[in-house]
Write the structure tokens for this entry.
Amino acid sequence: MSYEVNAGNNKVIKTADTYFVNSGKKQNTDKSETITFSLKDSAGKEITHQYTLKPNEYMVDFVIGANGANQLFTNNTINLLWQTEIPQVEKTLSYERQQTNFCYLNGSKYDFVRLGSGGNEKFEKGVNWISFNPQFFVSTLIAKNKFQSAEVNWVTPADSLRIIAQTTANCKLTVAANTTTIPMQLYYGPNDYKLLKPMVTKWNK
């Protein structure tokens, strides 16, 4: 996961290629743990990435914080890049591809698309969450205040690589203020109906 940041002197950096400093780990009263990574410059501008994980859960709370956002992000927008690679698990790759879906909630509209041999989906309005759902293991990205828009692409590489699909999601996040926090969540866990049902109910709110 990565996005671009204005670094001054017409220079742009990608967060995935930048070293963030570990600001420490915190034990919370609900037994969850929070770890924060920060990136600062000499002028006082700062970006933080905060991750919180609760015991025995597959959901990670992910919050982007920014101080000096008006200078850090062009047009008050974060262009978030989320890439995943879905590995082959079973013997028959073609069957696994048939069982893999791209799912999303766009406003109040839930839908899914079979991955097939490749595809593309564009969303011009607010997107609550996007998810890649193979047979056994799910990867989901949730924006608590919705993505402004998103474009999602996926390809199926050569069978010899034993990869179901390689996916790329470009999601726009609105930066509301010069000092701001943008709450999101990541779910990496089993494709289990009983486990996912209560979570999906929360995601849809």
Remarks:
- The two ends are 24 Å apart (CA to CA).
- The mean pLDDT is 91.
- Residues 193-203 form the longest helix (11 residues).
- The chain has one domain: 4-203.
